[in-house]
Amino acid sequence: MKKIVLSILTIALLIGSAYATSPVQINAFSSRDLAQGSTGDDIIELQARLQYIGFYNGKIDGKFGYGTYWALRSFQEQYGLPIDGIAGSQTKKKLTAASSYDEKFVMDNLKKGNQFTHYGGKPLSSQVKQGGGGNENVHLPSKYSEQDLKLMANAVYGEARGEPYEGQVAVAAVILNRVEHADFPDTIGGVIFQPGAFTAVADGQIWLTPNERAKEAVLDALNGWDPSENSIYYFNPITATSKWIWSRPQVKKIGLHVFCH
Questions:
Q1: Crossing angle for the helix pair 165-180 and 212-222, nearest 10 degrees?
Q2: What are 130-165's pLDDT values in tens digits?
Q3: Closest of 84, 93, 29, 95 to residue 62, by C-alpha
Q4: Residue-wise over 86-107: b if at least 16 C-beta within 10 A, else e?
Q5: Residues in domain Peptidoglycan binding-like (predicted)?
């Protein structure tokens, strides 16, 4: 009988030891893969975790846009993961282990409409500003300046404010594509103010005050989104009077604009 009791106690101790030494499984995110266009609480967590370790410096809003995409790619590159900009199970597991997430802090501030951040190594209480509705940090790549952002936003607003969001990003992308093309000036200001290049410059609409949507479209283009597919021209077929522009190889139509090479 004593041997049986000792055996039971030994087994119990071994099981207890196994539980004590096994890593605690952290339930994070949802089971779905997270990619561009996704929205929801798990995107909020993704943004907050990426911000905690310094990869994401934008607004935590639960919308997987290009800022989140490039932040995630940077994380994947640094941590030796497949670089695809998608938060699958492997990426989520690695991110969970590398970061921390204070869900209550984040959700409470979102509900209150506070301006806040979620950086690690800094007291969260010092990262909150009452009201303001968001985060003023933007995903501005180091090769571009605030002046570039403002000038492009003016151009996009003047040229395409009535177009769908994708069309506004495409107009911004055309400007950037011209900067990289040998046939155009090599600066953003040079491209925008090249004589005869943009209607908004000719009629003065370049100086209208752009809205936040135009700025967001420029930021998406600066961060690599090119809906125009490397186009260097676009035109409105309803109003275009140049026969030459119709001769350019057409790529696609977005809204009222036809984009071409």
A1: 50
A2: 655 444 445 678 788 889 999 999 999 999 999 999
A3: 29
A4: bbeeebbebbbebbebeeebbe
A5: 39-95
CA pair distance 255, 251, nearest whole angstrom? 13
Asked if residue 157 and residue 233 are part of one domain, the reply reads: yes
pLDDT tens, residue by residue, 15-72: 444 333 333 334 468 889 999 888 889 999 999 999 999 999 888 988 888 789 889 9
Three-state helix/strand/coil letters over 216-260? HHHHHHHCCCCCCCCCCEEECCCCCCCHHHHCCCEEEEECCEEEE
Q: What is the DSSP letter of 80?
A: T
The answer to whether residues 91 and 159 belong to one domain is no
Which CATH number does the domain housing residue 27 bear?
1.10.101.10
Query: How many angstroms separate the Cα of 225 from the Cα of each of 20, 83, 172?
Result: 48, 16, 10
Cα separation, 92 vs 75, whole angstroms: 11
Token pair 């301006």: residue:
115
Three-state DSSP state, 96: helix
